[in-house]
Amino acid sequence: MRAQDSATLPDPIAVRRATPTGHGRRGTLLATLGVTTFSLTFPATSWGLESFGPWTLVALRSLLAAVLAAGFLLVLRVPAPERAHWPGLAVVAGGVVIGFPLLTTLALRTSSTSHAAVIIGLLPLSTAALSAVRTGERPSATFWAAAVAGATMVAGFALSQSGGGLNAGDGYLLGALLVCAAGYTEGGRLARSMPGWQVVGWALVLCLPLSLAAAALGLVHEPTRMGVPGLAGLAWLACSSFFGLYVWYRGMAEIGAARASQLQLAQPLLTLVWAVALLGERLTPAAPATAVGVLVCIALTQRRPRTTRAVHHPMQP
User: Fold this and answer.
1) How many other CB atoms sit within 10 Å of the CB of residue 282?
2) Measured at the alpha carbon of residue 247, what is the angle toward residues 99 and 30, in degrees to the nearest 5?
3) Residue 140 has pLDDT above 70, yes or no
4) Domain extents for the chain?
5) What is the mean pLDDT of the chain?
């Protein structure tokens, strides 16, 4: 994608994203489906930790998802990505396939699902900021104001849950924010030039040798206690690692990474619902107030127009 002047034809991707058509509504729906899938990640991780150690759980999750992705790629005879795409796929793999699952799983050993959910609520702002630098997206001032307000409310809720301080797992969660935002941004950029499920699939396959070795070591050195909740959690994590990221990247490709990222402001609130319904956790009265405020911010970021400046990057086709 290159900067345009009056003598050049309009870029089809820019036109698609700027035009309010059914593609935008479809992209919002796909991104929302991805957010709903991700909202169950922490409860599923808590279940998985009942049967597996943290390193084993992450390795098995990645391994099973990679096998699933490799099967799709082989059956459909998908050609290997271009050489220019592999560095971006490595960023997706490091951030989304390995970094975020590992860091959040380590955090959930000491943090509750609800506490982790509200900390990760800062992910939309992190993704939007990195996207602005990496892809050239320039959201409006109103967009940024609503995003910052939503992130501030989420952060305030997190602090109130922990008595005004940060617990031992928050360092892992903050690291997870950074690596996941980088992976989301790069994956959304790649999904504009190749199908989203292929971005996810190749990132998972790229990690396959490491996942296999880590799973073998984890099963030997960490205790394993097989049970229905643990196996169910592992199965959900493996499936969502492929299919959840597939719909998420498709959505980002159609409506833009910064705008799609703001839908994730709803993710911690959904996770709070699952924490109560599935794990029996208790919430403070601040949760409903935070939910209303965050939903208002989501409405603002989705309705206000954004301005986007096309910038050429060496990795872009």
Assistant:
1) 8
2) 130
3) yes
4) 24-308
5) 81
Model pLDDT for residues 42-53, shown as the tens digit of each residue: 999 999 999 999
Q: Alpha carbon of 271 to those of 6, 42, 83, 208: distances in Å?
A: 48, 7, 38, 29
Tokens of 68: 């699933």
pLDDT at 23 (0 to 100): 67
pLDDT for 157 equals 78
In contact, 237 and 43? CB cutoff 8 Å: no
pLDDT at 139: 76
pLDDT of residue 183 exceeding 50 = yes
Q: Where are the alpha helices (DSSP H) in the chain?
A: 12-18, 22-39, 41-48, 54-75, 86-92, 100-107, 113-119, 123-135, 141-161, 170-190, 196-206, 208-221, 228-239, 245-255, 257-263, 267-279, 286-303
Give the long-range contacts of residues 32-37, CB within 8 A, separation 24 or more.
Answer: 32/251, 32/263, 33/247, 33/251, 34/244, 34/245, 34/247, 34/248, 34/249, 34/251, 35/248, 35/263, 35/264, 35/266, 35/267, 35/270, 36/270, 37/240, 37/243, 37/244, 37/247, 37/248
Cα 29 from Cα 317, distance rounded (Å): 27
Predicted confidence (pLDDT) at residue 267 exceeds the cutoff of 50: yes
- How many angstroms separate the Cα of 47 from the Cα of each of 37, 123, 228? 16, 23, 9
In eight-state DSSP terms, residue 194 is: S
Rounded to whole angstroms, how far apart are CA atoms 236 and 185? Answer: 24
Apex 103 CA angle, 270 and 257, nearest 5: 55
DSSP letters along 91-111, please?
HHIIIIIIIHHHHHHHHTTTS
Give the pair of three-digit tokens for residue 299: 């409405």
Residue 100 pLDDT greater than 50, yes or no: yes
pTM for the complete prediction? 0.79
Q: How far apart are CA 105 and CA 218, in angstroms?
A: 14
Query: For residue 292, is pLDDT > 90?
Result: no
Using CA atoms, how far apart are residues 262 and 246, in angstroms rounded to an integer? 18
How far apart are alpha carbons 253 and 34 in whole angstroms? 13
